[in-house]
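Standup notes, structure subgroup. Blocker cleared on the NAP input:
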Amino acid sequence: MNKVMLITGANRGIGAATARLAAQRGYHLLLNYRSRADEAAALAREITAHGSVAHTVQADITEEADVLRLFAELDEHHGRLDALINNAGMLETQMRLEQMDVARWQRVLATNVIGSFLCCREAIKRMSSQHGGDGGAIVNVSSMAARLGSPNEYIDYAAAKGAVDSLTIGLAREVAGEGIRVNAVRPGLIATDIHAAGGEPGRIERLKGSVPLQRGGEAREVAEAILWLASEQSSYCTGTFIDVSGGR
Ligand code: NAP
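Run returned:
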């Protein structure tokens, strides 16, 4: 039987790279996207053309009703869940903290924190032996920002990823006896659209000299760590973090 993986924010960037690698490793996939239906559909076509199974589901993970519908579609299409990849995340324009408004903080926390909490909750209801599940693995996509704080850029995003780190540690311990492992990756400077969303498409070029490996990373390099944490090969790891940051 093929294992089933749900990836949030799967249509591009690290989520899409994870989907491609997971398909190669034999997972059946539920690919969540928020707004870019064409991108998600093209990815699903690519994956199914290579002989795997992939369904796409639109859902804004900040909306509880959307997350409930996402997991209901999971139940309908796949009937089980082996791995949840909490990948969807966002940041906003670079600025100092005193320039930020409350609406921005609410958006940043809603996606990066509440969205991850909602998906964890629904995954546990399906995975936990306490609920009749077979266990599973949750991988949260945090950020090196949680450690570095992102001064002059987006302290709100960094703090939200700090919350994801605490979620990872606490939940790992809470559900360890129920067959569920919870781990996280902390990507560093990875080549995706997220830097343009912060207002600086060339951010990696500016900062790569501060990376011990002297370059930005590729989404595929993060996907490798995610897939390892989701797999049985990491069976003795829970509440742990892999920094995929070139040593930064
Ligand atoms: P990206 O290319 O901007 O992709 C972000 C993905 O998240 C998109 O698919 C986006 O959907 C989705 N998303 C955002 N808000 C959502 C919501 N409310 N509901 C559902 N989906 C939502 O960025 P990325 O670099 O691949 O980011 C993936 C993860 O890695 C994020 O958690 C990010 O914080 C983390 N990360 C990235 C880096 C980096 O350097 N790239 C470093 C550290 C951590 P749409 O396409 O519809 O917008």
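Discussed briefly. The mean pLDDT is 98.
Next: hand off to the docking folks.
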